[in-house]
Amino acid sequence: MERIADKPCFTYSVDNVLSSGLNVKCPKCHGFGIVTANKDTAFFRCTNCGHTEEKDRRIYRYEVHNQCKCCGQYYRADIQDVDKQRFQVLRIACPFCGTVMAGKVHKTAEVFSHIGEIKDGKESYFGLELWFLTSFRGKLVWALNREHLAYLTGYLSAGLREKPFSVAGKAQADHLPVFMKTAKNRGRILRLLKDMQKK
Fold this sequence. Notes:
Shape: elongated
Largest sheet: 4 strands, antiparallel
Strand content: 35-45%
Number of helices: 4
Helix content: 10-25%
Radius of gyration: 24 Å
Order of helices and strands: EHEEEEEEEEEEHEHH
């Protein structure tokens, strides 16, 4: 009987896979593309047509810093309205006395975004469809890249599955949807995964 040792929890999270590459379809030619990221930027590159895209991973804070000419108070006003964030100067009311004055808009990188979800079979930086994507009874079955696909195939085809030692007690398979792990579905899902491996 084939035995497999499961991977530690989050081995195949989007954030972890971004270092080696998330496999997606090119929006231009529908060829094989790769999404990677560093600390600041996410990158897309098509291996077929050469199309590339970049996206800033940082989340910015927009504020007007000012000293009121009427009451003399210093204040910072957050700019939440996305349409107003593109201006360099805005007229803002003083929160202390209500006097409206012009102030310079300051843009500051506040945090780094870790958008790690796959939604409707698409990655969340560029909204590109995953390369390894199919469905089983109306439910999406996907893999982030070829290595993740090999893990899923190995895990579902194994007769014995061992959990790795973990302080949290979680393994990668704990993130799989129940319908994939159910014994009656395993064989059919395994066939779908093996068909995807031929891509």
